[in-house]
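Figure S4 source data
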Amino acid sequence: MTLIIDRLNVSYGSRQVLHDVSTRVLEPGSFIGLIGPNAAGKSTLFKALAGLIRPRAGTMELNGKSLDALPRAERARQVVYMPQAYGCNAALTVFESVLLALKQKGGWRVGAEQVERVSGALHKLALANLADRPIGALSGGQAQMVAVAQSLVRAPNLMLLDEPTSALDLHHQLSILTRIHDAARDGGMVVIAALHDLNLAAKFCNRLVLLRDGRVVAEGPTREVLALPAIGETYRVETSLETSRSGNPYVDARLPRQNAMRAVA
């Protein structure tokens, strides 16, 4: 499923948040990192793609069809959005909450295939031991991992993840992003994840889209984007792109010398 965003403009009342946001064709199997500072417009872009807000202008096409022209139920089947603020009925168990997410795509009768899919998703995310635990008894990080399981089990064509690693420790960050990367590749879906950690984006994402003040500053293969001066300019730091011993790119970032001296003083 290909995704094309063309000259998308979104406003909240009189305040315009997204300005002519466009991307190249995003191909099936792609894991796209949406990067940029706070208030750059990342969450607003996700809400527009998910149909939670209507654009003022522009188009969004999934496999050649306008997302805004799709019936609401069909759009919900094809596009899954995991926001930053995760909410779920605290009385449900982990297994029940993931099963409920899966059954949103069809009737309510539960068969062996659905049970197996839920069990498989929990196992792959190392959540099987929490299957019978109520959501309300989980830590913030565990609840976030369950939210990712809810997204993955539905196998959408487009998956939107707003800071999916924000409450996770390093082990679980790597685990979650590995699973998401593999799901995009194996399932032929397009995954877009908003990530603040540029080095996690460098490790897992095929392409990056850099947003600043609601505009696309750069877009392209991950290594190329991270090497651009626009990275340092956008985050107001000095950066250089380095290569780890394993051959992966990573960003070495530091405060500008003048700011660093002020911090010390």
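Figure S5 source data
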Amino acid sequence: MEVLSNFQYKKLFLPNITERILANNADIQLYRLENYLKGILMPVIPYRTTFNFIIFVTNGRIKQYLENKEYVAEKGGVIFIKQGTITATLELSDDIEGFFLAYENNILSEQELPKYKNSIFFMNPFLEMNSLTYEMVTQLLPIMEQELWLNNLNVNDVVITMLHLILVKMLNMDANSNHKSATRPMELSLRFRDLLFKYHVDEKRVAFYAQKLSVTESYLNKCVKNVTQKSPKQWINEIDINYSKALLLSSKDIAEIAYELNFHTASHFTQLFKKISGITPKEYRTQFSKERIPAK
């Protein structure tokens, strides 16, 4: 599966953007949906991002595939795609309007953002803005856009502060988000998730991640379970299965997918898939082909 940087995403899927936008490698980028995604090459094959991006819809609708689910956003809807997650744009209405806000993880080290880093990571991928939040965000985003263009697309403290405000407003919309200050278990759980995205295909052992994090296996189990309500092993299994679901949209056979994900046998893969998803990989593929999910 492709792991795409912001530049690669633009190069592969957005043939109508300008050379200036294509070359923009700033840590924060903001574009109008109606211009940025115009002419997007569909279907978009599921991919993983090295950056975070947020879609704010002010008109029309967009359907986004994200970690094995589909989200439809219309006016007031927000889709939040975090670094490392599997995603793809499925549908885009002709009258789509709104904003595409992208940022790199390292920007979270600036100013006050570290205070919210853990909460942002665990925020829900789909939010609906109430009228007051909608008004505030739709006033703030054009100002942020203007600041970027006046500054030749370069990031400054004003832009970082506005990103901070938008993320905090999103956290306030998310009733399920954990707004507590960062703790050692939360930070450890976040670092564990970051490592999972990088190593889960090759490493299924909790001990490997504990060693990487310089903690004992039992301590890692305790922290991750307390923060996320799932054990590290559950996370490892689920990220493998979510990854496999994107691969099942391709023409690869089930045995080949099992091999690619380093399962001992195709049978072992099938059993784990059914345990987590309730259906077999073959049934999943049939189900989603009927719903016309993009295929490779």
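The two ends are 10 Å apart (CA to CA). Residues 131-150 form the longest helix (20 residues).
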